[in-house]
Design goal:
Elements (H helix, E strand, L loop, with lengths): L21 E5 L3 H12 L3 E5 L11 E4 L1 H9 L10 E2 L2 E6 L4 E6 H5 L7 E4 H13 L9 E3 L4 E5 L4 E4 L4 E3 L2 E4 L17 E13 H5 L5 H4 L4 E6 L4 E7 L4 E9 L12 E2 L2 H7 L5 H7 L8 E7 L7 E2 L2 E3 L14 H15 L9 H26 L11 H6 L1 H5 L3 H16 L32 E12 H4 L8 E3 L5 E14 L5 E16 L5 E12 L2 H11 L3 E3 L1 E6 L4 E7 L2 E9 L2 E2 L11 E8 L7 E9 L6 E8 L1 E6 L11 H8 L5 E11 L8 E2 L2
Helix pairs in contact: 1-4, 1-9, 2-9, 9-10, 9-13
Length: 694
């Protein structure tokens, strides 16, 4: 059996701090039990209230199309283990038995993730009930209370009242009480009305039909669904329970049968059944005549238009209570299951009770449009055929892809993600955006701000005097200038090793950058800002390169960075694929007192995003400033004047992506070393304070 691997999103960061929801489900049919299992698997406490004693379930078959089978597999249920048969053939006859067409449905089904099955309703119901109440599986077992009729619901505070007068309150009440839902009246006055058709239903043993030679050709195929059509009535036959039973649904006009109620269990009459299909294929009539009259049931097909709202503060409808289905496309049970798995997905463990109303609104947004569309398509495909027109099989098949090519678990999970992303007011998005906000140094996967005060750093720097007239050529626009007109200016190579970074799983990396000191930026309004300009930075890990370039606008590149550090010496070698291009050395380091940062220590850079398909043009370009970070905890500070800077630009073959940069840096003379420093401590700036200057 194929099961879904639970998504990492199924449990969120609040799960450990938030109690499970207490959910009350009214009705233990297919929709109610599916809902209960889905919510149980989400970790919630679920109680199901069923007015009957569940002594028996309807003795009929049910379609389990791919969209429903996928849900069952997600819930850990393999319907084939209980005898469900794969739907393999779709054969159509005219009223009188003329062969019309056959479709190889097994071939068609290969394009769907899950098989189309034909199950016995009793068997499927038993599987759902056992899965819900079993001590095995995810989440606490569902408590199933039979002979517990709910007579009233307070939809705003989540309280139900039983027939015996007792009350139970939960965080959510789910009404799965079927087509004649009592709970629906809390939201609407609409009620189901007769559709104009009745349906006989019954089962016979396939072996009995195979024993009659004239019937062999219409019943022998495994997994074959057979239709006989007339303009206003039809016979549908398909196998179930390990291909041992043939299920019949015989739909015909409602002539106002006296004494027939609107339930599934009206008693049918064999003579009336045969008379209703007088003139049909003799083989079909022979099959109808094999029914045990005591098991022949007839029910009035009821229909109801869309209702405006499926939910209230702590209450919602699922299944036929929300959207009753006619049987023409075999989607009634499937849509109820989709409702149930949607609720279980939209209310993962960690959902606070205060969030329930908003999640119910999201539930309706996920489910209402689809369910009502399938409902309308079903309605249209079941209409009578006008004289001279073809039957409605083409309509049925046209919408099979829409009906079956859907996975509500996947759909609702994606809608929950989008909802939660939207709820997070300020989160970082960067490519690939298909997977949501990107975790990084400034936020976690849920968009929460990272704590970096405990992260460790060792920063080494060499500050030196060089040519201002060369340095100024690195400035990207004329808005940047040196504060001093002197032709000697100062620059630094600053290298840092980070460790204990939460966003990297407690690990770290190395980076270094080239900074120009004493720079001012003049805004368009004439105001000036003073800081240091970062011309280029190299890092030895891809993740911070991507986050820094896209989120902050830092000019980051990749290099292998090897660091050696003793008590009094330091050296760094930067290389690309074995070609060393920069070496920094500090010797005779001695301890001294660190200088506190000043407002002039803020960093400038320039963000540039090239325009796709338009070389030489930018989609965005603007100046960036990172304010002076808050004070770090410096544990040690060393200083020296004995420093060395060595560069090697190589050629384009050795440094095919860096030669143009390193060759320019190699042009810079070192007139004098100002100082070399090494500082070690805790507290790392996440650069979350970076902003666009204008």
């Amino acid at each position: 059996m194929r099961e879904y691997v639970p998504s990492s999103f199924d449990t969120n960061a609040l799960a450990a701090k938030t109690r499970a929801l207490n959910v009350l489900v009214i009705g233990a049919g297919l929709g109610g039990l599916t809902t209960a299992i889905a919510l149980r698997r989400a970790g919630h406490n679920v109680t199901v209230f069923e007015k009957s004693r569940l002594a028996s379930e309807f003795g009929a078959a049910i379609n389990v199309p791919p969209n429903a089978n996928g849900i069952l597999l997600h819930l850990g249920i393999d319907a084939t283990a209980a005898g469900a048969v794969e739907f393999k053939w779709f054969t159509e006859y005219s009223k009188t038995g003329d062969y019309v067409r056959v479709n190889d449905f097994a071939q068609r089904s290969r394009g769907w993730q899950h098989k189309y099955l034909l199950a016995h309703r009793v068997d499927l119901h038993t599987q759902l009930k056992d899965t819900a109440t079993s001590s095995k599986g995810l989440g606490p077992p569902v408590e199933l209370k039979t002979a517990s009729e709910v007579v009233d619901v307070d939809i705003n505070n989540g309280t139900i009242t039983l027939k015996d007068g007792s009350n139970t309150q939960g965080d959510l009440v789910v009404a799965a009480d079927g087509i004649h839902s009592r709970c629906r009246s809390k939201l609407t006055d609409q009620r189901p009305n007769p559709s104009g058709h009745l349906a006989y239903r019954f089962m016979i043993k396939k072996a009995d039909a195979l024993a009659i030679p004239e019937l062999v050709d219409v019943v022998e195929k495994t997994g074959e669904l057979v239709f006989w059509f007339d303009v206003d009535r039809r016979i549908v036959m398909y196998p179930t329970r390990n291909d041992s039973i043939l299920n019949f649904v015989c739909i015909h006009p409602d002539q106002g049968t006296v004494g027939l109620d609107d339930t599934w269990n009206g008693q049918g009459n064999r003579e009336d059944l045969i008379k209703t299909y007088e003139g049909f294929d003799p083989r079909a009539l022979r099959l109808l005549g094999m029914v045990d009259e005591s098991t022949l049931k007839v029910w009035r097909l009821m229909d109801m238009g869309p209702i405006e709202k499926w939910y209230a503060e702590r209450f919602c409808l699922v299944g036929d209570a929300a959207h009753p289905f006619l049987p023409h496309q075999g989607q009634g049970g499937a849509q109820a299951m989709e409702d149930g798995v949607s609720l279980g997905t939209l209310l993962p463990r960690g959902t606070d009770p205060s969030e329930v109303p908003a999640r119910l609104k999201l539930y309706q947004r996920c489910r209402k449009e689809r369910a009502e569309f399938v409902q309308e398509v079903t309605r249209q495909s079941g209409k009578n055929i006008e004289p001279g027109q073809k039957n409605n099989i083409a309509k049925v098949m046209k919408f099979f892809d829409y009906n079956c090519g859907h996975d509500e678990y996947h759909h609702s999970l994606n809608e929950l993600r989008k909802y939660q992303f939207k709820e997070q007011a300020k989160v970082y998005w960067r490519m690939p955006i298909s997977f949501g906000p990107y975790p990084g140094p400034r936020q976690d996967a849920q968009g929460h701000i990272r704590e970096t005060s405990h992260s460790n750093f060792i920063t080494r720097s060499i500050r030196f005097k060089t040519s201002r007239t060369l340095l100024q050529n690195f400035l990207p626009t004329t808005a940047y200038t040196f504060l001093s007109g002197d032709t000697i200016a100062e620059a630094s190579y600053i290298q840092t090793t980070l460790d204990n970074m939460d966003w990297l799983g407690g690990r770290g990396y190395n980076y270094f950058g080239f900074y120009m000191h004493g720079i001012q930026y003049k805004k368009k309004d004439g105001e000036t800002v003073v800081g240091n300009y970062l011309a280029v930075m190299w890092e030895d890990l891809t993740d911070p390169i991507l986050s820094g370039r896209e989120e902050v606008g830092f000019p980051k590149l990749f290099a292998d960075i090897a660091v050696e550090h003793t008590a009094s010496t330091y050296s760094m070698q930067a290389s690309w694929r074995g070609a060393g291009f920069l070496k920094l050395e500090l010797n005779d380091l001695v301890a001294c007192e660190a200088c506190p940062p000043t407002s002039e220590d803020q960093v400038f850079t320039y963000k540039y995003v090239p325009s796709t398909g338009n070389p030489g043009f930018a989609d965005a370009e603007y100046p960036i400033c990172v304010p002076t970070p808050s004070a770090k905890e410096i544990k040690s500070f060393l200083q020296t004047s004995k420093c060395n800077i060595s560069t090697n630009a190589h050629d384009w073959k050795a440094l095919p992506t860096l030669h143009h940069i390193v060759s320019r840096l190699s042009e810079l003379p070192v007139y004098e070393v100002v100082k070399g420093t090494v500082s070690e401590g805790t507290g790392v700036d996440s650069l979350a304070s970076a902003y666009r200057i204008e």
